[in-house]
From TrEMBL:
One of its GO terms (biological process) is CAAX-box protein maturation. The keyword Transmembrane applies. Residues 114-210 form the CAAX prenyl protease 2/Lysostaphin resistance protein A-like domain. The chain crosses the membrane at residues 9-26, 32-49, 69-92, 112-133, 145-167, 173-192, 197-219. The keyword Transmembrane applies. This is CAAX prenyl protease 2/Lysostaphin resistance protein A-like domain-containing protein. Keywords: Membrane, Transmembrane, Transmembrane helix. GO terms for molecular function: endopeptidase activity. InterPro entries: Rce1/LyrA-like_dom (IPR003675).
Length: 220
C-alpha cells in the first residue's frame, strides 16, 4: 500500500464531516442534497489528487462505451430488479413482518408527467449522486485507508452499504434492509468491475427507472 500523506488524510476527514453535517445537521434536507454533496466531493478530490478528481472516484474513460452502459448495465439492472421482486422484498417482509413503504411515491401512479420529472431527479440524485458519494468516494476512501484484503472489502461493503440503507429511512425498516442488500450488490459489482463508477451509475439509474415505471403502472 502506498504511503498516505497528510493531505490524503485531512481532506477526506473534512469531507466526511461535511457529509455528516449535510445529512444529520440542523439544515433541512432537500432533493438536491446528494448533488451538492457530490460537487463538494469532486472539489475535495480535486485538491487531494492534484487536479484529477474524476479518475480517483472511478470514472474510467476506457470503460465509457455503449456496450457497457446501454447493454450490459441495463441487463444487470433487470437481473437485480427481478431478484429484488421475487426474493429480496418478500424475504425481508417475511423477516420484519412489515411491508416496504412506497407511500412517498404513491402520487406517481398514473401520472406520466410527474413520473418523468422524478425520473430525471432520480438519475441525478440517486444514479449519479448516491454512486459518487457511497461508491466513488466512501468505498474508494475505505480501500485507500484499509486496503483490499477480503476482510477489508467485506467490511467496506457491509458498513458503507449499511449507511446507504439507513439513509432510506422513509421506506421503513423493511425498505432500509432491502436497500442495504441492493446497495451491497451494487458495491460488489463496483469492486468486481475494478471500481468502474460509470457502470454502477448506469445500473443504479436503470434499476430505479424500472422501479418508477412499476409504480406508475400500479405494479408496486
Amino acid at each position: 500500500m502506498n504511503k498516505i500523506t497528510l493531505r490524503q488524510t485531512l481532506i477526506p476527514l473534512i469531507t466526511m464531516a461535511i457529509i455528516c453535517f449535510m445529512y444529520f445537521g440542523p439544515i433541512n434536507r432537500t432533493p438536491f442534497e446528494n448533488i451538492i454533496i457530490s460537487i463538494i466531493i469532486i472539489i475535495a478530490n480535486y485538491i487531494e489528487y492534484k487536479g484529477k478528481p474524476f479518475s480517483a472516484l472511478g470514472f474510467q474513460r476506457a470503460k465509457f462505451n455503449a456496450k457497457n452502459l446501454l447493454i450490459l448495465a441495463p441487463l444487470v439492472a433487470i437481473a437485480i430488479f427481478v431478484f429484488y421482486v421475487i426474493a429480496i422484498v418478500p424475504g425481508i417482509e417475511m423477516l420484519t413482518g412489515v411491508p416496504i413503504d412506497y407511500s412517498s411515491m404513491s402520487q406517481l401512479e398514473g401520472n406520466l408527467q410527474l413520473t418523468i420529472v422524478w425520473l430525471l431527479l432520480v438519475w441525478a440524485t440517486a444514479g449519479f449522486g448516491e454512486e459518487i458519494i457511497f461508491r466513488g468516494f466512501l468505498m474508494r476512501q475505505f480501500v485507500k485507508f484499509f486496503g483490499e484484503s477480503k476482510i477489508s472489502i467485506a467490511l467496506n461493503i457491509i458498513l458503507i452499504t449499511g449507511f446507504f440503507g439507513f439513509m432510506h429511512s422513509h421506506q421503513g425498516i423493511t425498505g432500509q434492509l432491502v436497500t442495504w442488500i441492493i446497495g451491497a450488490l451494487i458495491a460488489l459489482i463496483f469492486y468486481l468491475r475494478k471500481y468502474d463508477l460509470w457502470f454502477v451509475i448506469a445500473v443504479h439509474g436503470f434499476f430505479n427507472t424500472i422501479a418508477l415505471f412499476c409504480i406508475y403502472f400500479g405494479l408496486a
